[in-house]
């Protein structure tokens, strides 16, 4: 795999600022590997399960000192009450995500955020998967917690060609049917979809007690509508053009956007879903750091 593909999605600045941040599930998790998160499983909760290598931040009281004197390395004792989680990263690759130039293109921006989060999850020995969709599921990289997973994910990201419309609700419903345990689902999209159709699909995830995080990725033009003069707007998912004086529609557009975001917030609040607003004009490292800091504070306060 060319090194340029990895460097295209794994931005060193993002990694340097976020890779050491842990991502803790907000509820109890179910898993099939030993990890570092509380499990809801009842029964022999303190039965010994195995060892893993010590990493910075682990509680020293769990170090197996006998193993240290024989192996000259630190290992952590693990029990059945400690388990792993799976983080599913879901990317909208429909044509509207092509909007923007260079590093501010919505699809590239979202892909870089997604890759950095995946890297962080794997560094803490948890599993991550990647799914892409437009009108249908385009690809699925099965969960893994090895660094080779990052290579598989970036290879898939580099193969995406956003040319279709989106059928988000159907695709999320199909993905929900593949998930069997309580997991974290992070969806990256501009969410140009019908909210009334989307809500039942998100409720399917919440019914299965998955934690759902929506990264609402928009270009700054879409947020501020800072166009001037006469502009021709061309549809990315519909073969339509619209020539207009931007001053004539700015107020109506911004009002419509505010109404949409208000309805979106209400949907998320009803279903206990987290929505993260993302402006591609901001450095992605800054956006991710703000999110991870906020998430960490909320988890500690529980």
Keywords for this structure?
single chain, 302 residues, alpha/beta, Rossmann fold, 2 domains, six-stranded mixed sheet, two-stranded antiparallel sheet, 10 helices, 39% helix, elongated
Task: Give a short summary of the structure.
With about 300 residues, the chain is of the alpha/beta class. It has 10 helices and 12 strands. It has a 6-stranded mixed β-sheet, sandwiched between helices.
What would the CATH topology of the largest domain be?
A: Rossmann fold
Mean pLDDT: 84
Total tally of structural domains? 2
Overall outline? elongated
Task: Indicate the radius of gyration in whole angstroms.
Answer: 21 Å
- Uncertain segments are 28-46
Distance between the termini: 43 Å
Q: What is the number of helices?
A: 10
**Strand element count:** 12
Written account of the structure:
The chain is an alpha/beta fold and 302 residues long. It has 2 domains: 3-24 and 84-300, Rossmann fold, CATH 3.40.50; 42-80, no CATH class. The chain has helices spanning 3-9, 12-18, 65-71, 106-123, 148-158, 168-176, 195-207, 220-224, 246-270, 284-300; strands spanning 37-38, 48-53, 75-79, 82-83, 86-92, 127-133, 137-144, 184-189, 211-218, 230-234, 241-245, 274-279. The chain has a 6-stranded mixed sheet with strand order 7-6-5-8-9-12, sandwiched between helices. Strands 1-4 form a two-stranded antiparallel ribbon. Helix 4 packs antiparallel against helix 5 (148-158). Mean pLDDT is 84; it is low at 28-46.
